[in-house]
Design brief:
The protein has 2 domains: about 1-255, P-loop containing nucleotide triphosphate hydrolases (Rossmann fold, 3-Layer(aba) Sandwich), CATH 3.40.50; about 265-345, Immunoglobulin-like (Sandwich), CATH 2.60.40.10. The longest helix has 18 residues, at about 160-175. An 8-stranded mixed beta sheet has the order 3-4-2-5-1-6-7-8, sandwiched between helices. Strands 10, 13, 14, 15 and 16 form a 5-stranded antiparallel beta sheet that branches. A 3-stranded antiparallel beta sheet has the order 9-12-11, covered by helices on one side. The protein is built from 12 helices and 16 strands. Strand 7 (about 180-190), helix 9 (about 195-210) and strand 8 form a beta-alpha-beta unit. The mean pLDDT is about 90. Helix 3 runs parallel beside helix 5 (about 95-100). The radius of gyration is 21 Å and the shape is globular. It has about 350 residues and is an alpha/beta fold. The protein has helices at about 15-30, 45, 60-70, 75-80, 95-100, 110-115, 135-145, 160-175, 195-210, 220-230, 235, 240-255, and strands spanning about 1-5, 35, 80-85, 85-90, 125-130, 150-155, 180-190, 210-220, 265-270, 280, 295, 300-310, 315-320, 325, 335, 340-345. Bound molecules: adenosine-5'-diphosphate and magnesium ion (MG). Adenosine-5'-diphosphate binds near residues 11, 43, 188, 217 and 227.
Amino acid sequence: MKIISVVNQKGGCGKTTLAVNLAAALSRVGKETLIIDLDPQAHATFSLGYWKKSSERKTAYDIFRSHIDGGQTPFAELVIADRQKMSFVPANMLLSSAEINLGGVDGAAAILFHALADPFFAKYDYVIIDSPPSFGFLTLNSMYAADMLLVPIDLSYFSFNSVNSVYRVAGLLNRETGRSPDIFFMMNIYDQRSNFAKILEREAREKLGQYLLSSRVRSSVRLREAAKLGKTIFEHDPKCSASLDFYNLTSEILGLDESELDTAVREFVLHAPKAGSVHVLGDFNGWKKGEASRLAQFENGDWSIHFNLKKGRHRYKYFIDGKWMPDPANPRTEANIFGSQDSILTV
Ligand SMILES: Nc1ncnc2c1ncn2[C@@H]1O[C@H](COP(=O)(O)OP(=O)(O)O)[C@@H](O)[C@H]1O
Ligand SMILES: [Mg+2]
């Protein structure tokens, strides 16, 4: 079983559309697929044509309820299996109360992870989780459970900030739990005629390398219609461009399981509460200072950035308010030709 969580703290970038139609495409190529709606707004549930009152049946909330009232979760009762090879666990507003009641509880981010380890779920080849547009308790559960994070980026509003935040939260989760899902980005609402989209795509590819999937989902009114009608794109219009895009995306995602990646993402974190601007420069970015080398500042005084590095040995250094400094968190240094020290990192 492979668990793919669709995340991005930005609303409207296409998480639900991606979760629902990726699940649908996986089921069409013969994979037994389960989609879990983890958003209290229940958009995935509606997109799958389920409009019944939430009080009438069990929902994703029941996965968390047992942690509040101590009971067992009846997994089989959560699942609606009204399509071939594609089932789903619906959501409703109650999920937001899980966010409130369990937010601070120890180990609460691992509830979904442990639930999915139950033998009941072993029959699924893929579990796709649709997450809410925030980095709260529910998204943390979604990320903790995941083998892979899939981040749709809306190229019409693309900013590196949302990319950095995903890496940042994944980094924190990794330090807390040791989990390290692969993180892939997908361009959604892609307008191939727009020059702007092409420029943004180039920038995104420079930053993300092979972690930016080559398949894109183009802008298509059919996707909006399908969601409104409670249908997947294949049920609504199997021959439209969006259906083709989702098939291509699915083949690429299936292929990832077989290919070996020759790069890895590394986070650079520097604690410098008083600094005004911090860059990391190294052989991996040609020692070139610019927007792409600038670290993002966080409230606790940390600065952070992520790079997709080729496997092998790298030299780098921080550039803080105009002054060079080796990485204080990295004991490995080596002299450079300028008579000072560079930090050395092996990926
Ligand atoms: N490729 C696309 N082309 C056109 N409309 C899209 C596309 N992807 C998503 N949408 C529409 O954009 C809106 C937001 O998408 P949604 O998947 O609900 O985003 P999120 O779950 O991230 O909030 C929905 O109305 C959806 O139908
Ligand atoms: Mg959504």
